[in-house]
Amino acid sequence: MDELFFQLTFFLYVAATAGFIVHLISLRNGVEKIAVYILSAGFCLHTIAIILRWISEGHVPLVSFHDTFSFLAWAITLAFLLFQAGHSVRALGAFVSPVISVMMAAGLMHPRQVLPLPPALKSYWLPVHATICLVSYALLTLAFCIAIMYLVQERQIKRKKLGAIFRRLPSLETLDTMSERCLKIGFPLLTLGIITGSMWAESAWGSYWSWDPKETWSLITWFLYAALLHQRLTVGWRGRKSAYMTIIGYVTLLFTFIGVTYLLPGAHSYAL
């Protein structure tokens, strides 16, 4: 049953993505609201799918790549809906929803079978650490999407090509402020995720840090975001530099999340 809800969720997310893009390029009023309703409906079905998956697995569904991609898509959707309610940035959906759809598609591409938990994962740290990390990833995804929006808007202004997209996107100053707010919440959560991960490692393997590839790249990612926030808060970095650094940080984050498991397997490599 959870598979049916997951597939229905995927189709709703794709439909919402189409609606957001039509809204962005056509200036048709009301399309964005319909897309938000569709995305919200998908989120509700997605929540049910995760709950049913949890019941069928007998443990929190955050172990396999199918489950982590699903939960990350769910968390990004929740973060977007909450952010949209507070800021009402209509164009943001056209940049965030494709990422959500890609995450769901990645989940569909990975095996769905329920596997027994390895001994190291039979811990209360699993839901704590994994949830914190994936929620931080969701907020940093928003920051990444906003950085893309910033560069698109800046390019249009410089080329003096003020088309439909320009009229949909907020000002550069607003976009920069939005990105900073996401970073200020996402980075502390990323930090907390690394701390809880090290505490879990100590209880499971007797060592807080073993320089496993996942741990090493998590630290690299942390330093990139720490440097970005330091430059923003102390040096006054704004605009294009910050946007590029946000994108670099997010690419590194994705490599840590996905690439390390495939290319640099270690103690953190479990079911794919």
What do you see in this structure?
The chain is built from 9 helices and no strands. The two termini are 21 Å apart. It has 2 domains: 111 residues; 137 residues, no CATH class. Helix 1 packs antiparallel against helix 2 and helix 2 runs antiparallel to helix 3. The model has no long low-confidence stretch (mean pLDDT 86). The protein is an all-alpha fold and 272 residues long.
Helix content: over 70%
Q: How many DSSP H or I helices?
A: 9
Query: Which percent range describes the beta-strand content?
Result: under 5%
Terminal-residue CA separation:
21 Å
Pattern of helices and strands: HHHHHHHHH
- The number of strands is 0
Reconstruct the topology from this structure:
Blueprint lengths: L1 H25 L4 H27 L7 H23 L4 H18 L15 H35 L4 H5 L3 H34 L7 H23 L4 H24 L9
Helix pairs in contact: 1-2, 1-4, 2-3, 3-4, 3-5, 4-5, 5-7, 5-9, 7-8, 8-9
